[in-house]
Write a structure and sequence with these properties.
The structure is a single chain. The chain has a 7-stranded mixed beta sheet with strand order 1-3-2-4-5-6-7, with helices on both faces. Helix content is 38%, strand content 15%. It has 254 residues and is α/β, with parallel strands linked by helices. Helix 2 crosses helix 3. The longest helix is centred in the middle third of the chain and has 20 residues. The chain has a single domain, classed as Alpha/Beta hydrolase fold, catalytic domain (Rossmann fold).
Length: 254
């Protein structure tokens, strides 16, 4: 499991686990360090996909089902062990949806809360009509990456570093470009869903996420563009929100 899941701080007495899915091209460290900011009742599992960090020699996944097969394969016993919640930003939000839908339909397991960030629902018209990025030339692709922010300029200016990070980003965006799912005709979840987004980011169809749950649905807009969540002040707001809602949910399981 340690190959797929990065857990900085193992908390065997934790009441709930927070499973975090990376943004396109992202690794596991950003979320794994959240363990230091959250209390010991919440154990953080950060997903590490192939082709990055300690898995650089492994081939990238080519479709969403490959991601689900691996992650669910290692996490299924843990999902049955105690309550879990999900967090994902951008491509990670899409992966959250696919993960939640699969474990509900196949194993009748449901998170106690889903936190989504920086993305339209994958079945929304906004997402279906979004331009495909994975097929852009490297020059156009880098121009787009630069426009959304979040990547240090020194990386984009260094050809060797670009060679290292570009393939993972393109591979994940290829998965996103080819992922298709149907709009839920009825909600398949009953847990609360919270959406975060950057006020200066390209507008996303956040309301469409509401179709997946009969539970409470909330939206919180924060200052910043696509990678607004990397800002310390915004990160604190997000972590405080997660803590508050998971601690409240924990009371139902005690």
């Amino acid at each position: 499991m340690d190959k797929v899941i990065n857990c900085f701080s193992k908390c065997p007495d934790a009441v709930v686990r927070l499973i975090c899915f990376p943004w396109a091209g992202g690794g596991s460290i950003h979320y794994a360090r959240w363990a230091k900011a959250l209390n010991n009742s919440i154990e953080v599992y950060s997903v590490r996909l192939p082709g990055r960090e300690g898995r650089t020699k492994e081939p990238f996944f080519m479709n969403m089902q490959e991601i689900l097969d691996e992650v669910i394969g290692v996490l299924l016993p843990k999902l049955k062990e105690k309550p879990f919640a999900l967090f994902g930003h951008s491509f990670g939000a899409m992966t959250c949806f696919a993960f939640a839908e699969h474990v509900k339909k196949v194993f009748d397991l449901e998170p106690i809360h889903i936190f989504l960030s920086g993305a339209s629902a994958p079945y929304s018209e906004a997402r279906l009509q979004a331009p495909k990025r994975s097929h852009l030339s490297d020059q156009d692709f880098l121009a787009w990456v630069n426009s959304i922010g979040g990547t240090p300029p020194e990386i984009l200016a260094n050809a060797e570093l670009v060679k290292l990070f570009l393939p993972a980003l393109k591979a994940d965006l290829c998965v996103a470009d080819n992922f298709r799912c149907s709009s839920p005709s009825t909600p398949f979840l009953s847990c609360p869903v919270t959406c975060f987004d950057g006020q200066e980011d390209t507008p996303h169809d956040l309301q469409a996420w509401k179709l997946m749950t009969s539970g409470e649905f909330t939206v919180q807009m924060l200052p910043g563009s696509h990678f607004y969540l990397k800002e310390k002040a915004n990160e604190k707001i997000i972590l405080d929100h997660i803590t508050k809602h998971l601690e409240t949910a924990e009371m139902d399981y005690l």
